[in-house]
Amino acid sequence: MERGKVLEYLTIFGAAAILGFLAYITAVGLYVVDNYGKTVGKAAFGTGEYEVIKVYARQFSWVFEYPNGTKVFNELVIERGKLYKLEITSLDVVHSFYIRELGIKYDAVPGFWYTMWLQVDKPGVYNIFCAEYCGAKHYLMLAKLIVVG
Amino acid sequence: MFSKKDYLLLTAVCTLILLAWLYVVDFGRPPFEPASYISQVIFDAYTVVVVAAGVVASIFIGAMVYFTVKFRAGDHGEGEGP
Q1: Chain B: residue nearest A83 by CA?
Q2: Domain total in chain A
Q3: A65 and A114 co-located in one domain
Q4: For position A78, which CATH number holds?
Q5: Contact A103, B39 (CB under 8 A)
Q6: CA atoms of B33 and B45, how far apart (whole Å)
Q7: Are residues A55 and A125 in the same domain?
Q8: Do A24 and A52 reside in the same domain of the chain?
Q9: Nearest CB to B49: which of A22, A102, A117?
Q10: Which chain A residues are closer than 8 Å to B48 by Cβ?
Q11: Among B30, B37, B52, beta carbon nearest to A18
Q12: Which positions in chain A have a beta carbon within 8 angstroms of at least one beta carbon in chain B?
């Protein structure tokens, strides 16, 4: 085979291999993140060893509803190392629940519930942003995630 | 037409661009210390993607830069239109 053809095939199949590898990494990572509660110890999902916190996004604040029904504005307090299942929705327009330091971002869409597994091992205060432009005061839609323990 | 020197120069240009890319992205290190296993998975994917993108971009940009210089219009008539 002539050299030009070899280079051509190398380019095509090399690029395909890199893209395939990236797709594999992404798919595995997404599966792990989305099913974390089901896979961690196999126990969390079946026996409810996690707390469900409902997250409502609205213009221009975050509302967190704890299992006992308490609703808190713009402040989510969780325990270090404990598993939480956040159920996220929106009450008006599309928002996006974004914690930069944790690398997670989930859309909040009216009429839909999205599940986000959350477990933080490092105590501290993390900023919660809205990462989807949602109106004139979008920039004020800030909350705190406080990890204690 | 394409000598060993050309291959070496092309490789050097691509490598330089890749090194510049890696420097800009802090060698793929995550912007924050992972605070949980989930964050670890996300930031690992970030590292892999940003480095792989650097490899692809450096080959593409390196080849473009090198060929633009090598086949630029000169006195010998190369690069001229019909």
Answers
A1: B36
A2: 2
A3: yes
A4: 2.60.40.420
A5: yes
A6: 14
A7: yes
A8: no
A9: A22
A10: 21-22, 25
A11: B52
A12: 15, 18, 21-22, 25-26, 29, 32-33, 36, 100-104, 117-122, 124, 126, 147
With CB atoms and an 8 Å threshold, state whether A15 touches B38. Answer: no
Q: Which residue positions in chain B have pLDDT lower than 50?
A: none
Domain that holds residue A76: 42-148
Three-class SS of residue A70? coil
Asked if the C-beta of B32 comes within 8 angstroms of chain A's C-beta atoms, the answer is: yes
Its ipTM equals: 0.75
Residues of A within 8 A of B44 (CB-CB) are 25, 29
Are A23 and A88 in a shared domain? no
| Greatest pairwise CA separation for chain A in angstroms | 72
A110 and A129 housed in the same domain: yes
> Residue B14 and residue B44: Cα distance in Å, rounded?
25
Tokens 């912007």, residue located? B31
A83 vs A50: CA distance, rounded Å = 5
Q: What is the pLDDT tens value at each position of chain A, 149 positions in all? A: 788 889 899 889 988 998 898 899 889 988 888 888 776 655 555 555 788 999 999 999 999 999 999 999 999 999 998 889 999 999 999 999 999 888 889 999 999 999 999 889 999 999 999 999 999 999 999 999 999 98
A13 and A75 co-located in one domain: no
Domain check: are A102 and A138 in the same one? yes
Token pair 């929705």 in the structure block, residue: A89
At A11 the pLDDT is 85
- Same domain flag for A25 and A55: no
Q: Is the peptide bond before A60 cis (omega within 30 degrees of 0)?
A: yes
